[in-house]
Amino acid sequence: MESEDYEESKERVALVAIVVLASLAVASLLIAFSYYCYIRNKVSKRLKFQKGEEVESKNGVSSIQVATEKGLQVFTYKQLHSATGGFGKSNVIGHGAFGSVYRGVLHDGRKVAVKLMDRAGKQGVDEFKVEVELLSRLRSPHLLALIGYCSDNNHKLLVYEFMANGGLQEHLYPVAGSNAVYSKLDWETRLRIALDAAKGLEYLHEHVSPPVIHRDFKSSNILLDKNFHAKVSDFGLARLGSDKAGGHVSTRVLGTQGYVAPEYALTGHLTTKSDVYSYGVVLLELLTGRVPVDMKRGPGEAVLVSWALPKLTDREKVAQIMDPALEGQYSLKEVVQVAAIAAMCVQPEADYRPLMADVVQSLVPLVKIHRPTTKAGSCSSFHAAKSPTAQGLGRASP
Ligand SMILES: Nc1ncnc2c1ncn2[C@@H]1O[C@H](COP(=O)(O)OP(=O)(O)OP(=O)(O)O)[C@@H](O)[C@H]1O
Ligand SMILES: [Mg+2]
Fold first, then answer.
1. Which domain holds residue 289?
2. Which residues have C-beta atoms less than 6 Å from ligand 1?
3. Are residues 150 and 225 in the same domain?
4. Candidate ranges 148-152, 281-285, 326-330; pick with highest mean pLDDT
5. pTM here?
6. Annotated active-site residue in 216, 234, 275, 323
7. 216 has catalytic annotation
């Protein structure tokens, strides 16, 4: 009897010991798992931030964390005043919606372009903020580099790398009020510019998460360096896109007439495909040498997309829309290929437009064809007084 009791109490002790040990094991597992989750979360946040990505989302709408100022120089107004010769008229290189752009030289001898905001109001300040925050964290050889900025109470200035050959549109057609030396770009250079610009958008759409939608992609926001390599500029209107496949963000419609995708103009729904449409319009400008909207042109010819689209996929008609300045420089085969890319980009239905990666893939072989037979282009120097003459055309982009 006694031995039975003894056995029973031994069993109970063993059971209690097992339960205690099992609970301890489960508790340690839970603690280890929570610690692992905490560390993983911390590391992934740090990695995302280093890559210049979004770290938080409010109400489902992406928001950008305030930028680190790493790599960006903060200038005083006085420094930029002296770099641009007191914002002298002779140093003005352009005007845009943000304000005037001046040529400047920093203390260390670097050539820069200084944008001086002359717009009052929230929109201008917001654009300034977006431009600084985004450009300080995005890095690509196909995006215009922001060197620094000045933001004191009364002055907002942006300091960029200097692009000796200015905006693309100024090489395609004369621009009212511009003192640029107007010249026509040759076919080979146009193809290379199309590829560089496509790579800039590809980076924004596909190499950054969540994707960045430029929202104001147009020929004046494609800038050309001394060798006519192109970089995409002006992120003032940029928005972070939706991470979800097929997702969109709703915004107020902003952009430039002639470049805005129909679904965005009608509904305000913005996706990376809105930029693809604008890219298609720029490709049409490169092919035809025409502005996106010109009310002075004859009936049916005022809007570039409506006029060109029916001819783009017709081998017989495609040659009719080509810029006459390009005559004799291209083969029909390559023009048909570029026209087909343009036609897909400006499809009214956003889902039928290609990804920018597809556009890059299609243009690479065309640009390669021209690589071995490098020849000087028909372009003359731009911003002529100070910039070096055009050289190195046909060299592969870096
Ligand atoms: N980094 C730069 N280097 C050389 N020239 C520049 C630079 N940035 C701008 N420019 C010149 O200044 C002009 C005006 O540029 P800006 O971006 O202010 O206006 P925009 O592109 O014409 O219009 P928007 O304000 O709608 O973007 C450009 O067309 C170009 O000639
Ligand atoms: Mg611009």
1. 168-366
2. 93-98, 101, 113, 115, 144, 160, 162-163, 166-167, 170, 220-221, 223, 234, 256
3. no
4. 281-285
5. 0.75
6. 216
7. yes
